[in-house]
């Protein structure tokens, strides 16, 4: 039973298109995150939601819009895709927002390739 | 905000040798330090973590040490095996913060040669 599941696993699309990535966690956690991992492996936080409330919004182009319909789901919609958006996007969750002193559980990632 | 620096960026060792990865942090409020292992094409997974009320924690072949005064912490892997080859990330967080944010180092690519 996968704890944090993302779909799709691979996404290949053309520049200018709009795409969405979905994430679901069955751990009963309150807090969910989106990270971008570039080709140099750096894990950069993009957004965090706690119980459907946006709590972290890093300097990310407004073409990226997260949405959390409930605390078990966090989706990421990307408009007007650009070459520089090619990366692996990881969803993660943690028990709650009570500090960073919580292990974060990662999904398997979505590899986005822009042609 | 917090700044976590990780060294070295790449590390090659012979099977059976020890490997040490070091991280420094800037925010004295940080008090939680996890380490994640990411195998090629896989997700980052927590392998060990330490809180600032202890100086060392061990789990079989891996150990983490923390020096709060100097603001650095290290991952030690003994008797390395080829399956230890992966990218390792250190991170730091302030447990008193309500943001739930981890600050990651840039990663260390560890290669263990048979």
Attribute tags:
heterodimer, A: 115 residues, mainly beta, seven-stranded mixed beta sheet, 11 strands, 0% helix, B: 114 residues
Q: Nutshell version of this structure?
A:
Helices cover about 0% and strands about 55% of the residues of chain A. With about 120 residues, chain A is mainly beta. In chain A, strands 2, 4, 5, 6, 9, 10 and 11 form a seven-stranded mixed β-sheet that branches.
Can you describe this structure?
The complex is a heterodimer of chains A (115) and B (114). Chain A has no helices and eleven strands. Chain A has 115 residues and is an all-beta fold. In chain A, strands 2, 4, 5, 6, 9, 10 and 11 form a seven-stranded mixed β-sheet that branches. Chain A has a four-stranded antiparallel β-sheet with strand order 1-3-8-7, with no helix packed on it. In chain A, a hairpin with a 5-residue loop joins strand 4 (31-37) and strand 5 (43-50). Chain A is globular, with a radius of gyration of 13 Å. The mean pLDDT of chain A is 91. Chain B has 114 residues and is mainly β. Chain B has no helices and eleven strands. In chain B, strands 2, 4, 5, 9, 10 and 11 form a six-stranded mixed β-sheet that branches. The mean pLDDT of chain B is 93. Classes of the chains: A mainly beta (115), B mainly beta (114). Chain A binds chain B through residues 31, 33, 40-43, 45, 48, 50, 55-56, 90, 94, 96-109, and chain B through 31-32, 34, 38, 42-46, 49, 51, 87, 89, 91-104, 106-107, 109.
Itemize the secondary structure elements and their pairings.
The complex is a heterodimer of chains A (115) and B (114).
Chain A: E1 4-7, E2 10-13, E3 19-25, E4 31-37, E5 43-50, E6 53-57, E7 64-70, E8 73-78, E9 87-94, E10 105-106, E11 110-114
Parallel strand pairs in A: 2-11
Antiparallel strand pairs in A: 1-3, 3-8, 4-5, 4-9, 5-6, 7-8, 9-10, 9-11
Chain B: E1 4-7, E2 10-14, E3 19-25, E4 32-38, E5 45-51, E6 56-59, E7 62-67, E8 72-77, E9 86-92, E10 103-104, E11 108-113
Parallel strand pairs in B: 2-11
Antiparallel strand pairs in B: 1-3, 3-8, 4-5, 4-9, 6-7, 7-8, 9-10, 9-11
